[in-house]
Amino acid sequence: xxxxxxxxxxxxxxxRVKEYEETLANPTEKDTKYSIGNVAxxxxxxxxxxxxxxxxxxxxxxxxxxxxxxxxxxxxxxRLKIILTLRNLGFGLEEVRKLISGETxxxxxxxxxxEALDTQIRTLTSxxxxxxxxxxxxxxxxxxxxxxxxxxxxxxxxxxxxxxxNEKIIASVVPxxxxxxxxxxxxxxxxxxxxxxxxxxxxxxxxxxxxxxxxDDPQFVADIRHGIEIAMNTIKHTRIDxxxxxxxxxxxxxRLLDAVKQKESPDSSIVQAIVNEHASLFANTxxxxxxxxxxxxxxxxWLKLENSRIDRYVKLCSILHPPVKLEVKARSLLMKGMQWKxxxxxxx
Length: 348
What we know:
The chain has 348 residues and is mainly alpha-helical. It has two domains: 2-101, Multidrug-efflux Transporter Regulator, Chain: A, Domain 2, CATH 1.10.1660.10; 164-347, no CATH class. The chain has 17 helices and three strands. It has a three-stranded antiparallel β-sheet. Helix 7 packs across helix 8, helix 11 packs antiparallel against helix 16 (308-320) and helix 13 packs across helix 17. The model is unreliable at 1-9 (pLDDT under 50).
């Protein structure tokens, strides 16, 4: 039932976008201007809501008169209808802004919301389980104390579970032949994600449980191991030690973050310079750019690791440790830059 509802919503949203485009094609409707009160009535919302969207830059009026009255055309009205549709479906203002500005597609925004709903469902399931255990207990009037103890025990077991997951990742994902000094480099932010102390939110608890499930998936473990083996096979001939390599990777990461903030495209000279330097850290040459033959093999190996399981794992880690979100953006730009260069080489 839930999936059917989402499908209908997707169709409805596409229809509204289509109606919006058709309205703009009609010169008469396009040029007519409406007061903020009329706009609120036409869209079934309130004047304060329309005014608020103006204040935050989500929906600017077509004109503000000398008397400071806001006037709107059909373009802004249809834009408002789409905003209200998304807000009624639970989308955040930032997600709405990205869709309206064209920064992300309808499909992407809907996928985000479905993912958020899945997380909420898992969280509510956990809460329901706690309440059911309390209800079924024999503590009677003392059930409130039992409820408190149950929540506390879950909190304690969460810390133990995090330590267990971190140890399991190292044991099952990192091949035994990887030298100790390189294990720390390859594990990246794993220790920050799984050893940081503090109470977890319901969403973080749900993310931790899902990571446990992923680690029981043989294909996911195989994917991660394959990535480390690729790195190890190329890096064993590198000219630098693990500590120096990690320091250089951190510098590239910071440069990638700057590129993300500046909204650099994958084919920009800045991103391509980072792509080349990144590849050079796995090569046995100081030549830049690295030889095409090496880059083709290197890029194809890494791009094979782009799949839904690994992407999901990274997103779950970002829920547990928000700074990982920066790593997600940087990694995405690097992979796109790598893909662009590979396609460019293949076309030559």
